[in-house]
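User: Quick sanity check before I run a bigger batch. Here is a single chain. Can you write out its predicted 3D structure?
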Amino acid sequence: MNDAEAAIEAMRDPTDAMTTCAQEGVAALIENDPNDIQCDLAEEGAALGLLGLMKGISEEFWCAGWMSDLEFSLWQAKPGKHYGQGIITERQAELLRLLSEECGGWWFYGDAGPKFIRTEDWLKKIAQRP
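Assistant: Done. Predicted structure follows.
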């Protein structure tokens, strides 16, 4: 396992400090000292950015920290698409795609909250969905 893979693997552990802080959203980063967040790789920063964007869209459009099936809806997000009380902008759709590509994965809601998953595993999860 190379350094990038090890770092992403560490993000899958909900007890990891970076993931725990990321799960609290961007507001937690603003309220707390942003220097407490350590990203050794751009890939890690992209994963945190992706999580923040997904949770932000959920909260803004649905008043929910993680709307049911958020991960599936945002994976298919297209500019101009109505979602909850809002409309997905071209910039939001592009950022979702770019951040996912940069970190090589996606976030889904697991048993203990948002969990990071590699893109190839996410595609398998989508294929198994009824």
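Confidence is low (pLDDT under 50) at residues 13-30.

User: Great, the batch can go ahead then.
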